[in-house]
Structures
1.
Amino acid sequence: MLVPYPLKLDAKGKLAPLDRAYVFSPFDGHVKSFTVAKNSEVAPGGPIAVLHRQEWYKDIKDLMTKRDNLTASIDLLSKNPEGLPPTERDQREQQRSSQIIERRGILERLQAYDSEYHCDLNHPGDFFVLAPDARPSAVGGPPRWRVVTQDFETKLGNTVRPTDPLLRVGNVTGGWEIVLKIPQKHSAQVFKAFKEAAETDEGGKFLWVDVLPISAPTPANRGMGKLYFKDVTATAEPNRDDQNESDPVLMAYVRINTPDIPKQYHIDEAVLVTDAEVHTKIIGGDHSSGYSLFYGVWEFLYEKVYFYLF
């Protein structure tokens, strides 16, 4: 009872790059192909996929036909046969000027398909879906995105809408975070710890979190991260535990491997895989060692035994 010891609260989470984004098609379209592979890298604004839109195919083909016909007509009108009367020459020149203006409008419309909608005019109806333009942070390498979705190729041949994500990209050199699910039963202790034991840096109040990847649960791969108060939701969300029983959770985000965390607390990059599961312990304030070490037992006995008997 007299020996203080920090209370550590268990929670599970999954790894994700700190900089990440879903890629959506800006328009309805049929997925023809992907220009990236699993775990490949792409520059910001680079092509991700090729989609086909039938409405654009018809419009572009019509515009190209009109362009080609006008070009042929302009070339013909540019060749004034010998001996034409001045009046007829003037008429041909007026007709030629009118067609040049009309062709210019068609070329501008085709150019808009290229520049605004990223269409491939060599294949009418096809357009490119691009990676996010935002430059991800470049802590350990160039600012490039990496494809972190593993099953995106199943969308080949499907028709997608702007609300349907094609895949997800992340910057694996710019720091990582854990998408954490804190059991509701720990919520009071977590918020109490923020009041009594939190540290503060430029990001605000935070608690240290022990992290152990399930894929390599060895002392060498143990690390630490920061759980900021601003990154903890205040609403419990439905969830199922390992026994498929209802166990509401608070969603939170723990930052790891960022420059502000000492190197000795970083986790080996070889085990950092998107959506890989990790075990964590949120480090709260000091309590009596008996309570801290047997916290789960005390909570279980009170909730399941004492509360019902008394």
2.
Amino acid sequence: MLYSTTVSNRNELVQILELNHQNLKQNLSDAEQQDEGFITWLYSLELLEKMHDVAPSVIVKDGDKIVGYALTTPIEARSFHPDLDIMFQNLEPVQYKNAPLFSFRFYCMGQICVDKNYRGKGVVNLLYQKHKELFAGQYEFILTEISTRNKRSIKAHEKVGFTSIYQYSDATDDWSVVIWDWK
């Protein structure tokens, strides 16, 4: 039975790392990327531990096996997460609801990933509903960016309730910045 919870031990961080490596775009063929989606950022165990120390990430488990994760990444993680810092630099000029984006209380989805064998089974919804349960009292919305080539991820986020507020390109990819507004 699938259930959502937060990371509680190092072994779970190791399982997240394994899913991260299995689904990195550089480890997938072009056809797999198109059909199954992909993730862009490579995480280390040290970085996951630092992130977890700031805020717990959400996982979906089937027994003891992690079958999906959604990394909680508050703005404070910017100081030790170089990719996040670059992303936030790209978002500094963005306006949302006629105000600077950074005038709102939000956090970033550092990355979301679902085991290939569990896709299409509601894992993304379980992950995000747990995020809302845990963090909607503290934040106005959750934000993430998705490669515009990752059609599967874009559709999954739209189904949850995310909307695109901005697009930009950097040396890595073309990005759609999406938010799930809880207010």
